[in-house]
Structures
1.
Amino acid sequence: MNSNEIILPCRLSYANIWEARQSMEGDKMQYSCCLLIPKTDTATIQRLQKLMTKIESEAITTKWGGKKPASYAHPLLRDGDTDPTKGGDSNYAGCYFLNAKANADHPPKIIDARCNPVMDRDEVYSGCYANVKVSIYAYNNPKGGKGISAGLVAIQKTKDGPRLGGDTGTDGFEPLSPEVEDMLG
């Protein structure tokens, strides 16, 4: 790993990890995922904050003209209990979260607990738990301002969890009895 990468144990939300998409019309195609980190995981939060501080310190001299921005338009690490974009979403309660993205030409590696590539797209989904490697970097964009962001590098699924954002499309159905099948046939 390089010095700006960190592996975060988390829960996946909005896991657009299998196909690059546009977040808004006109945007470039990207892979993306929101990472939910329980507030109780203080060790992970502290490691992430330490790395963010390091990246900020470097960016002050290399990207931001000697001055740290007073605030960021899009903070990297946000509070799921108070962030207005989450509107009281219970899945974010008690968590910090961050969004990570990868350009269409650099899809995230997706592996299982044994580090084997995952081929079944239903295996890694919004709601499952994973170790996610992100690359933290500073930016200075004329349109987007100055800030810190996370690049999505790799995802290692660690365990299943309740799916977020709906069902698989067939949830709720039951096999038809032979009598009903005969009536329909």
2.
Amino acid sequence: MSYTVTLSETSDKFDVQPNEPILIAAERAGLQLMHDCRFGGCGACRIKLLDGQISYEEPPFGLTEEEHNQGYALACQALPLGDLTISAQLRPAGFISADYHVATIQQLEMLSHDVTHLVLHIPTASEVSFHPGQYLNIILDDGSPRSFSMASPPKGDIFDLHIRRVPGGFFTSRLESHYQVGDILDVELPLGNFRHDVDSPQDLLMIAGGTGLAPIKSIIESLRSDPTTRRIMLYWGVRRSEDLYLDELLHQWARELPHFHYIPVLSEADDQWQGARGYVHEAVCRDHDDLSNFDAYLCGPPPMIAAAKRELSLRGISVERIFADSFNFTHELDGSVA
């Protein structure tokens, strides 16, 4: 026995088998729903249930309790319990599929005690269009991927990455001891659905945790010369002042760009720190009671994303206007280490 799922936007219908995720059934029917990690971590495949019920084998951590209570579900994990009507976003007609390329390490330097600046030269990617905010995969010798957001905007064949060292991580630890300028890496790009909604008239609230700054930086840099850019407020949360590896650059941008505001936030500040303290989403909430004029762009670890989503929705930002890139790609979710 199968169930029928109907897309409210297009009236398309497809069948799904019991205990089969909605995303898998949609793909079998030739419908490309928006998605990314497939593990329930990123939230990119979020749909809204208009009629019917679903279940999960395990609650996905890419969906907050507030989103669940409002009728949202993640298509990659949701199992229908009967016929459904859903609202879902399809991949646009001009969607750019990822492809494989050969990259050369052009620059390799430490930005801080645990963040490496990796610059890749990818000649065959010079004509590849990607959206600021997307990421690429570095493919290791065993074929496993390591995912890193592109910190630079689309500008030809040079790609910047900010890579935080993961304790015990195979790839990130070898960046310091094994790889050197001139080495060759296999890469896959572009990937991911995190990007700026260029058609929105709202101001931009950007919240980054650690190296979650990378895709946020790509978006901001792509908007620097745009005269129509609305106000941009960037809150960057790290533990200590030495973790603010691009602090000087961001302060410079704040001085140069009248529409850009930068607030660094330390969760483990010492007595010398004169700026914002605590968790980054708490600093946002202290500064703003009403955020209804903003779209929110969040990038960082899953607990930060979940906490920020919850608090921002209480201050006037609808779930549909909160865009998130949670740092929990496939290689982290399936148990391997970066």
